Amino acid sequence: MRALIAQPNALVILGVQRCGNTLLARDIASLGVLGNPAEHLLKAEAAQSSRGARLAHIAAAGAAPGGDTFAMTLMINYIGRFGELLMPARLPFVPGKLPIRAVEDVVLRFFRDRFERTTFVTLRRDPLWEAAYSHWRVSVTNQYHREPGKIRYGDGKVAWREGDPIIPDPAEIVRYATKIAENHARIDAALARNAIVPLALSYREVVDGFPDYLGRVLAAAGKSETALASAHRDMKKLTPDTEVEAARIAVREFLGL
């Protein structure tokens, strides 16, 4: 894949779903100097059938015109599929035969060793139950993001319809919270195994600190803060504060807090 990428540098967001990664990626893309760190793998899989075509799609999508940085967001639960693309002769990832840790290492070492400079970025959403509630909410409503003039829905089918009440299921929210914590631990362990120190951001910093927090991203990538002048944001908050508060109360009562 490295032969397909002209940019000497890379930026990788290692993420866990519903923790603000899409907002972070769009904020970074708006700078114009750090590539386009979207989830290229999913679009490549949907648009292309062959391994070579998928790799070419990802390589082209991650670059900004005239820039020197290739960028992408890589969710921890998709890292096996991306590692499969990178492996020679398309060696299949078979659970139980090729440990997922080995695949994670293939991916991280590719970015760490094949570029002149790679900036790894992680993002956490605390308290954890907020990310879990967001994950559960998607499973119920199929609503992913609020964009200018519209709400973006996923491809799945749900019984919920616009205007229906959203009644939190605390047991399911706690189950999602456990899985999210496990995925964050996977990211931490993989980075540690490969001696990688990421730029660690918090969800609240990204949401409330725009555009100033992007100065940290630019500095980590060795770029001038003058690029902050180009930063812009077009995503809006999807979930009302009253709904989030109702979920918080339900989770606390479920846990006996």
Structural notes for this entry:
The chain contains 10 helices and 6 strands. Helix 2 (40-47) crosses helix 3. With 257 residues, it is an alpha/beta fold. The model has no long low-confidence stretch (mean pLDDT 92). The relative contact order is 0.18. The chain has one domain: Rossmann fold. Helix content is 46%, strand content 14%. It is globular, with a radius of gyration of 19 Å. The protein has helices at residues 21-31, 40-47, 51-61, 79-86, 100-114, 128-141, 170-193, 203-208, 214-220, 241-255; strands at 9-15, 69-75, 117-124, 143-147, 150-153, 199-202.
Kindly give the count of domains. 1
The number of helical runs is: 10
The count of DSSP E runs of length 2 or more, i.e. the number of strands, is 6
Stated plainly, the CATH topology is called Rossmann fold
| Large-scale geometry | globular
Which structural class do you get from the secondary structure elements?
alpha/beta
